[in-house]
Structure formats: C-alpha cells, structure tokens
Amino acid sequence: MKLALAQIDMRLGDIEGICSRIADQAALAADAGAQLLCVPAPLFTGVQPTTLIEYADFEHDLIRSLRELAAKVEERGVACLVPAVVSVEQVPLAEAFLLREGRVIPLRTLMGLRGDRVEASMWEPVVFELAGTRIAVTFDFARDIAQLPRGCDLMIYFQTTGFDISNEETCAVASVADGHYADDVAHAGIWLASMVPVGSFDETVYTGGSFVMDDGGRVMAAAPCFEEGMVVQEVRRGEMGESLDTQRLPRFQREEWLWEALRIFVRDTVAARGFTRVVVPLEGDLPTSLLAALAVDALGPRNVVGMGFGRSDVFTPQQETRERERVERVRALAATLNIQLVERDHEDVSRWMDRDVPARDVGRLRLGINALYLADIAHELDACVLSSITKTDAALAPASLLAASTPRTVCAPFGDIYLTALEFLARYRNRISPVLSVSTVSLSAVEDHMVRIVSEVVSTFDDDPSRAARVAATLAALEPAQIDDALEAHVDRNRSFDDQPLAHQSPDALALLLLVVRQGEGYRRSLPLAPIVSARAFAERIWPPSLAWSDLGRQGAAPERVVDVAREEMGRLETRGAERGQRVRGEILGLLGDLLGLTPEQRAELASEEGQQRMRENAERFENQLREALSHLSEHDDVPDGGRQTPGMPPHHYPFFSQN
Questions:
Q1: How many domains does the chain have?
Q2: Angle CA(633)–CA(637)–CA(641) in degrees, nearest 5?
C-alpha cells in the first residue's frame, strides 16, 4: 500500500478552503499512486477548540464539507484520513474521519458506539484495513505504541503536541538522529507514519518534519521542516527497502528551531488577522532590535515599519550621550534591515497630561504616549503592531506592558521566552547575517533591560518608600540569570519554594519574585497573544487573579500531602478497629470466665498476648494430634472398642469429626 502525508498549512477553521486544499492534495497523491492520504490534525479546530466544538452549526458545516470532500476524493480513487477535534457527549475527542467510497466514517466514535451510548473503548487506538494493510490510528504515540492490537502493519500518528523547546521529540524527524522513535518502532515491529503539522494555530506552533519509518526503525521518507511538502511511501512490512541516510537527517538545534518556530508564528498570526504589514517599536535595546529582525525574516523588509521614539527625560551630558547612541543604534538597525523608519519625538510628558509639576511616573506616561504614536501610524498604514514583551516582562511587570499596548497589537513573539535566552537567540540570528550590533547582542544589553524590569517592580511599592528601597536592594543583588532561572523553575516546572536553588541563596529575593508573579496574574490575561514554545506558558499556567496566597516555603517542615493525610486516617481507623476487637475479646473472655469459674488472674492470663499465643499453639497442636489419630485409624481394618460397630453405621465413619 502506498501512503501519502500532506504537510499543509492553512488558516485555522477555514472549512471550505481546507477541504479544497485536501482535494488538490488528493489529486497529487493519486498521481503518485497513493491509496491513502493523511492531513494534519489541527486544521479544522486546532488542539484547544474550547466550546466551538459544541456549537451545532460548526459541527454541521464540518460534516457537510467532509461529505462533499469524500465524493471528490472517491473520484480520484484515494481514501483520506482527516483528523479533527469533536464533541462526543460533551467530551472533546480527537476524531479520525475516514473518507472512503464516498462515505464519512468517524472511526473512533464508531468503535466506541454501543447502542445509544459511547463506551470508553473510543479512547483506544482504532484499527481498520485498506489495500490488505491493517492500519492503527493514534494521537498519543508514547501511550499506544506498546498496546497496539496484534497483526497491525502500520501505525499512523497524528501529532497534536505543539513545538516545545524543552522536548526534542516535538520536532518530529529532527529528533530521530538523537534516538527518538526508532527503538520503540523497532521493538513493536510495525511501520510508523508520523503526520506532523506545520504552521501556527493560535498559540500552538508546529515545525513540520513528517516522516515514515519502517519496522526496523529506519526513516524511509521525510517531509521538510518549517515548510509545506508531501511524502509518498510504499509500506511493505518485513521487506528491506532503501532508507534515508541518518547522517543527512535534520538535527534539532535549539536556537535554530526556536527562531524558525517564531518566524512561522509571526507569519501565520499576522495573516490570520488580515494584515500584511507590521509596525515594530524600536528602542535600541535587545528585545526590540531582535523583534525587528524576526519580523523581516517572517514578512520581508517591505512589510515591516520601524518606529523610533525620542525621549524627553534627558538632563545631564551623560544622559545626552546615551540617548544619542541609542538613536544611532535605532537608525543603523533600520538601515541594515532595509526597513522604513518613522521617528516621533515628544517634549516633557508632563505637558501632555497638562501638569504644572513633573509627572512622578514619567516612564509609564512615556509608554502610553508611544502607544498612541504606534496606534496612529499602524492605522495610517493599515498595519498591525508587534510587541517585544518577553516572558520575564510578563512575569514581573505586566501592568506597565498594558500601558504600551494598543488595540492593533496582535502578538508578542517573545512572550514565552525569558530575557536571558534572547541573547543566545540573537547570536544565532547574527550567524546567519550580522544585522544586530555587537553592543545589542551582549550580556550588558540583557542587564540593562533587566534593570528596567526591576525598576517597574520597585515602582509598584512607591506607596511605602522604605519598602520600595528594600525591594530595590534585594533585586539588585541578583544576576539576570538567577531571576530567569527562578521564574523558569516556578512557572515552567511548577517547582515549589524549597525546591529552588535560590531558596538557599537568597530566600527573601525568591519570596519577592513569587509574590510579584502572583500579583500580576490579572494583568497578564490582557497581554497580546504569545506562542507556546516552552514546557508551560502563562496561557497554560492560570492562577486565580484574586489569589491572596503566595509561596513562602515550608520553613523547614515536612511537606504535607493529601495522600499522607488519608493514610494517617486509615491507620487511625485500623487502630480503632484493633482496640474495639480487643474490647470484644475481653467481654467474651469475661463471660467464659464466669461460666468456667476462672479467677481474675486466669482471665488476665488468657487475655494477654502471651496467653492468646499459647491458645493458638495449643489449638494447632490439638488439631495436628487429631489429624494423626484419624490417619492412624484409617490405616487399620479393625473397628475401635473391640470390634464392636454401631448398628446402622458404616465401618470407620465418625460423624462428629467428619462434620466439625
């Protein structure tokens, strides 16, 4: 059987457009001799469809379009496997629709349907046969590879997990050279077809790299990474064919894969919002400079407009020198990237607010004025705005970020990347072509931006000057890497206070960081869309915005867990039952003592542990003696009591002992 994997990128939920594209891919697959065509999973609904799948008309349009598509692909003689998330009894289910012989067959729902209800078997791998090949369909490779039904020839894995920089396996074929997939497939002795999406679907990003692997764990065919493509491969179980050279397979490189994933995210997100041009604020710092380079790589220089802002809070010669250098960096970057640069300058921001005295919070007012400039130029050019927010910004200073946001700010590509990681990402981009200045790609640039973030944190404590001074001193003692490491452990890995290295180095600083993260929960929900490229983004880590609790550690106490409390209660119940049993035994022994005339000392002896042990030993000894006596009697033909036999009873029958 020949299998085709169509690695296509379409706008999420464009049902008619997607079906039309699948029909075109089916024609190409038929020309290549394929009998089954597979398409990526998140095309119709994404991987987080929420209540969309419960909307009756959406389900109706999906099924109607799939029926029309089934008729078209039948004319080509190709069957199609189309995945989509649906609602079955108000439960989201990753369904695999088989378009075959002009029919639409929901395989997983069909397998689990029993009468008027759906059973749990719908969650198991579904198996069907096509062209003499038994095919299993799964959405969870790690779980299902070891429990496939016997006799399967091919496993089709629809990847739904988006790109995760901490999980190399999400990069599909790029992870094979480092040992992923091959051993499991070879052990199962089954072919694997990994259908991987490419593109951005809301926050989730996919890198492509679909591949077909034979039952020996060798890659037979692979689609390109970060772009569309089709793979056609004949599946012949037990036969050795020509495989791809492992040394020539793409290999996972952290910064490269992250940069390409962000490029795809920007390209698809801007297009999904109906824009072709973007406006990027330029501050001459690392985040905004790197953002401009990313926008150019994603959309081209003609579609990127940089916007520089003059600052009015310049009073000393040193400040004038720094401001002049900053403006020169902005202009040099725009010239290097070959993008249009729009410059805006404003005087004292206090005058903008009609104040006679200088504004106390000059920085935040300046951000608001800059946001007005951005919104104005974006509206004039019919463009959208990109934000340079990092994950560190979102963790510690989300309130100030809202002041710089505009209604046309569509996304923050670095919103799931910590500030210190941008330096390495910028170094990778400069290896492609040196578009960023040396001063921008440096540790000092990271430290300068971290100082701005810390100042925003300190400003939230301005109501108490002495407390603000303590906060500033506490955070100033930390390196940027220490701050980001603590945030990454807390947000991405969910590690508690005492499990962090910073808890032993500077517990007060860690407690302060976690407190600030908790206080910004409500503000973060209004920040622009950010891609999910880490183990846990803020879009996935949602805490109550009105939460008053903050992690301050256990203060040396052992961790309390619900399961330990349950075990403690179980032990208490067992102890209570043993005490009740002891009391019942005492009451019974009291009754026996009254009947047998035992003294109090004899009763105590019987009730003691030693007495109970002797009673058990005596009972066992009596039982053994009785068994030996019965065995001895059964070996002789003579009857006890001188050969006399009880009238009416058969020989050697002892009714008392036989029944008791």
A1: 2
A2: 65
| CA–CA dist 314, 317 (Å, integer) | 8
Would 653 be classed as within a structural domain? no
Task: Count the neighbouring beta carbons within 10 Å of the beta carbon of residue 559.
Answer: 9
Contact 498, 553 (CB under 8 A): yes
Same domain, 362 and 489: yes
Q: Do 227 and 343 share a structural domain?
A: no
The per-residue pLDDT for 183 is 94
Give the predicted TM-score (pTM) of the model.
0.84
- CA 374 to CA 515: how far, in whole Å? 32
| C-alpha 339, offset from chain centre | 36
CA neighbor of 174 nearest in space, from 204, 206, 203, 143:
206
- List pLDDT tens digits, range 396-446: 999 888 877 888 999 999 999 999 999 999 999 999 999 999 999 999 999
Does pLDDT of 489 surpass 90?
yes
> Do 232 and 221 meet the contact criterion of CB atoms below 8 Å apart?
yes
Per-residue pLDDT at 10? 94
Q: Which one has a higher pLDDT value, 24 or 627?
A: 24
Same domain, yes or no, for 275 and 146?
A: no
| Residue 147, CA distances (Å) to 83, 150, 181, 281 in order | 21, 9, 15, 53
In which domain, by residue range, is 200 found?
2-252
- Do 350 and 316 belong to one domain? yes
pLDDT tens for 63-104 read 999 999 999 999 999 999 999 999 887 788 899 999 999 999
The answer to whether position 590 is within a domain reads: no
Query: How far is residue 227's CA from residue 223's CA, in Å, rounded to a whole number?
Result: 9
Q: What is the pLDDT of residues 315-369, one digit of tens each?
A: 688 888 888 999 999 999 999 999 999 998 866 555 555 555 445 566 667 777 8
| Apex 455 CA angle, 453 and 458, nearest 5 | 115
Residue type, 503: A
Q: How far is CA 398 from the centre of its chain?
A: 23
Q: Last residue of a domain, which of 524, 548, 576?
A: 524
Question: What CATH number is associated with residue 228?
Answer: 3.60.110.10
Mean pLDDT over 140-157 rounds to 91
Instruction: Name the strand (E) or helix (H) holding 565.
Output: helix 562-596
Q: What local confidence, expressed as pLDDT, does residue 460 receive?
A: 87
In a domain, 598, yes or no: no
Residue 462 three-state SS: coil
At residue 406, φ and ψ (nearest 5 deg) are -125, 165
One domain for residues 231 and 367: no
- Looking at 524, 548, 572, which one is the last position of a domain? 524
Residue 38, classified by CB atoms within 10 Å of its CB into exposed (0-12), middle (13-18) or buried (19+), is: buried
Whether residues 113 and 242 share a domain: the answer is: yes
